[in-house]
Design brief:
Layout: H1 5-16, H2 23-33, H3 36-55, H4 57-71, H5 80-110, H6 114-129, H7 131-141, E1 147-151, E2 154-160, E3 169-175, E4 178-181, H8 205-212
Antiparallel strand pairs: 1-2, 2-3, 3-4
Helix pairs in contact: 3-4, 5-6, 5-7, 6-7
């Protein structure tokens, strides 16, 4: 309890006091309020200063000029999907086809239904002998949503080459008006979960048996 007037005045004074604002809070609030382009420009300026301090003025000018040039030649996001479709059909699918054929043969052996087993065997034959046609069919099963991000001189695109339940995300790099597979990525051709989009139960023999019994 407050027994004296001095105590009450001290309490009222404390209630009126506000916590001191940190300068960092103002900086963070200012940074978050900037447009994305201005944030990128700010990051570029910091990188340029660090480069100058590390490499010296002459080398830094060359590096910054190269970075500026590459930043003006980023491939547009709209150009990715046509390129990705060509890459999928001509580069990725031929390597995936043999693994798909093997997986379909294994699924056929697990089937309890003769008709479903025959269907898997036919699909395995088609994948092995009509790769060009099947590439387009499998491509249509893919999730076409792409996650884009830009890091100064490169544009990144992430795509799921697997199924919704068993995703396999792969990153591609866009630089100087072209796209390529990210150099740190190794394509996992053993991931054939895209077949789950055709028949989800076939990937799980217990569920498949329960459905067909």
């Amino acid at each position: 309890p407050l027994n004296t007037s001095a105590d009450r005045r001290c309490c009222r004074s404390l209630r009126r006091c506000k916590p001191a604002k940190s300068p960092m809070d103002d900086i963070i609030r200012w940074w978050n309020g900037l447009e994305q382009d201005k944030q990128r420009a700010g990051i570029a300026a910091v990188v340029a200063l660090l480069t100058i301090r590390t490499l010296g003025t002459a080398k830094s000018v060359v590096v910054c000029a190269l970075a500026w040039y590459l930043s003006t030649r980023l491939p547009p996001e709209a150009s990715f999907m046509p390129w990705f479709e060509r890459w999928f059909k001509t580069d990725y699918f031929p390597r995936l086809a043999e693994r798909l054929k093997h997986e379909l043969a294994q699924r056929a052996a697990r089937r309890t239904s003769i008709l479903d087993a025959m269907s898997d065997k036919v699909h395995a034959w088609l994948v092995g002998n009509t790769k060009g046609l099947q590439a387009g069919v499998v491509f249509e099963l893919l999730d076409k949503r792409v996650m884009f991000s830009t890091l100064l001189v490169v544009r990144l695109a992430s795509v799921n080459l697997g199924s919704h339940s068993r995703p396999s995300f792969v990153t591609f790099v866009g630089v100087h008006d072209t796209w390529m597979l990210a150099p740190w990525h190794t394509i996992d051709v053993d991931n054939v979960s895209i077949l789950d989009e055709v028949d989800p139960t076939a990937a799980n023999p217990r569920r498949s048996g329960a459905r067909e019994s």
